[in-house]
Structure formats: C-alpha cells, structure tokens
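Progress note, sequence design subtask.
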C-alpha cells in the first residue's frame, strides 16, 4: 500500500475518533448538563482537538517529520478555522433545519473533514522542506 493510502486510512481513523469525542462531549453536555448545543460544541471541539492532533502527529503524518510545536500551531490554526466554519454552519442548520442537534453536528463534522485533511497534509505537518 502506498504512503498516501496509508495516510488517508489513518486520517479517517483519527478523524472518526476525534469526531466521536466531539459528538459524545456535546451530547453529554447537552443531555446531561443542560448546556446549550452551541456552547457545548466549543467544549466538544477543544476535546476533539487534543485527540485529533495527537493522533495525526503520532499516526497520520509522522512520516512528514514536522517539528511538533510548529505542527501544533499550524494544526490549531487549521482546526480553529474549521471550527469557525463548523460553528457557523451548525448555528444556521440548528436555526433553519428543525433537525436534532446531534444529527446536525454529525453532518457538519463530516463536511469540514475534507479541507482539514488537505491543509494538514500540505502545510501543518510538513517537515522542514515545507516551511
């Protein structure tokens, strides 16, 4: 299997773990603590960021050999931008769709994943030759 295929498989696996973390935190906060979905989404994203960066650093993009602090800063920027899109889309869909908050969040999480992969593989986790 090529490095690119393996990287995509790891990206999907880590992304699914991060998305599951995000979704579970939101559901626990909304249904268990009565937190509003948009506020719970912020906490869910922060928890998912830890899972996502750790998994991508250790598994998905380890062969690219990026310095950890540079990769963390860049990935945080990508993740924060993705979260801004996530939160805007989530708010709009919650307001206009009438769908369940958890289904809307799952849809939005999947929608943001593609651009995250592209920016992560082509910028955040590149080694010294990709500065």
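Output:
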């Amino acid at each position: 299997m090529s490095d690119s295929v393996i990287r995509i498989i790891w990206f999907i696996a880590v992304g699914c773990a991060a998305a599951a973390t995000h979704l579970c935190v939101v559901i626990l906060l909304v249904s268990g603590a009565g937190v509003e979905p948009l506020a719970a989404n912020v906490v869910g994203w922060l928890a998912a960021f830890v899972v996502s960066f750790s998994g991508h650093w250790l598994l998905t993009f380890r062969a690219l050999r990026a310095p950890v602090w540079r990769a963390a800063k860049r990935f945080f920027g990508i993740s924060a931008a993705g979260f801004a899109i996530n939160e805007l889309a989530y708010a709009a869909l919650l307001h206009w769709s009438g769908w369940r908050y958890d289904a809307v969040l799952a849809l939005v999480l999947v929608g943001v994943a593609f651009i995250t992969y592209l920016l992560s593989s082509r910028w955040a986790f590149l080694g010294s030759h990709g500065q």
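The mean pLDDT is 92. Work on this subtask will continue into the next period as scheduled.
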